[in-house]
Amino acid sequence: MTIKITRKTGMMGYATKVKLFADGKEITKLSSGETYYLDIDKDTVELRVQQFTSKGKPITVKDHSHLTLQTNPMLNYLFIAMIVLIFMGALTSYFVTILALIPAIAALIVSLNNSFHIAVDNQPNKNDVLAGER
User: Fold this and answer.
1) Distance between CA 134 and CA 131 in Å, rounded?
2) Domain of residue 108, CATH code
3) How many folded domains does the chain comprise?
4) Taking the model in full, what pTM does it have?
């Protein structure tokens, strides 16, 4: 029985690998764009990811699932807001630059608890046969 997990996190966190945990045990480290096939001997497994202190929420998936590991979109928006405020502050006043601390702090808080999202591309029924998927 196999679960396919692909990391598509884009530029955020690109430089380092993400640890993948199954039922609380580290099973591999994924680079950006890498795919891992997890062989399990039961119907469901709880998966979660971690990069340094940044964690993703655990998700329980069924056998034969195809998953995509993504960066939380909120982090991308907060990062863009921070950069825009820094540039605006450089052109206008230091007060606007200080406002850039708001999305920076928000991004730090979000990244500690929910920096990654595991999206289920498909979660077939137990009776589905996916022979030859690899």
Assistant:
1) 8
2) 2.60.40
3) 1
4) 0.72
Give the C-alpha separation, 40 to 83, whole Å. 43
Q: Does residue 124 surpass a pLDDT of 60?
A: no
Q: What is the pLDDT at residue 131?
A: 42
Token pair 């825009």 is at which residue? Answer: 84
Q: How crowded is the C-beta side of 26, counted as CA atoms within 13 Å?
A: 8
Mean pLDDT of the chain: 81
* 4 contacts: CB under 8 Å, gap ≥ 6: 35, 36, 37, 38, 65, 66, 67, 133
Let me know if residue 134 belongs to a domain: no
Domain that holds residue 74: 2-122
**What token pair was written down for 126?**
């137990």
pLDDT tens digits for 68-108? 888 888 888 888 888 888 888 888 888 888 888 898 888 88
**Counts of helices then strands in the chain (DSSP H, E):** 3, 9
